[in-house]
Amino acid sequence: xxxxxxxxxxxxxxxxxxxxxxxxxxxxxxxxxxxxxxxxxxxxxxxxxxxxxxxxxxxxxxxxxxxxxxxxxxxxxxxxxxxxxxxxxxxxxxxxxxxxxxxxxxxxxxxxxxxxxxxxxxxxxxxxxxxxxxxxxxxxxxxxxxxxxxxxxxxxxxxxxxxxxxxxxxxxxxxxxxxxxxxxxxxxxxxxxxxxxxxxxxxxxxxxxxxxxxxxxxxxxxxxxxxxxxxxxxxxxxxxxxxxxx
Length: 246
Ligand code: GLP
What we know:
The protein is α/β, with parallel strands linked by helices. The chain is built from seven helices and ten strands. Among the domains are: 1-61 and 71-110, Rossmann fold; 136-178, no CATH class. The protein has helices at residues 10-27, 42-53, 81-88, 110-124, 160-166, 185-190, 204-212, and strands at residues 2-7, 32-35, 63-66, 68-70, 100-101, 129-132, 154-157, 179-182, 193-198, 230-235. The chain has a seven-stranded parallel β-sheet with strand order 1-10-9-6-2-3-5, sandwiched between helices. The longest helix has 18 residues, at 10-27. The structure holds 2-amino-2-deoxy-6-O-phosphono-alpha-D-glucopyranose (GLP). 2-amino-2-deoxy-6-O-phosphono-alpha-D-glucopyranose binds next to helix 5.
């Protein structure tokens, strides 16, 4: 079942999403959170850090597993998702660093890297709340459009549109890695609850396709229509094509 929560703008979307994450942690202090990178969840992370500062939130028992990581980037590379998570959330709250997991982009052997991450996810006992952004082509994590839905953690070749979209974070497009390790679709679908954040008019088309179009691996996010508990928090612009449908 999909619930749509309409937010005024990016800040409103971020606060609403952070409220949902925060409620999850309050109700279940030892929650396993599936976390995402990109600009969509950034505002929510800021809110969570702020509420932690105020003493409203405690991450001491929380475990986190991130969706994805560029293959080949080391932890101290500013473009790595490991670095992003430490900079924007982990260093700002009292989460136990030993209980934060991001796929290890430095493992060259892809079979080993993916197997190791699947074992880590299994070891957490399962994700309680999975946070997701959506790529312009419908990717979730780095699950790119394909003929099939990939199940577990795997190595992907990033599509040209994804490389172009993510090049804004790099000095030049040549520096964007062409491969990544990502949690699989089945792992994402195994999460008890899913929280999607979408903002901006450039996401309006994919939001309509993903949640009101056919379910197909060519639009990976469309699989979310089959999940029992999905909340999509989007701003007016991102919801502009579905306003009459929700
Ligand atoms: C990246 C990430 C995804 C993210 C997506 C959207 O490629 N791997 O996890 O959801 O892009 O990013 P943004 O939120 O910046 O639009």
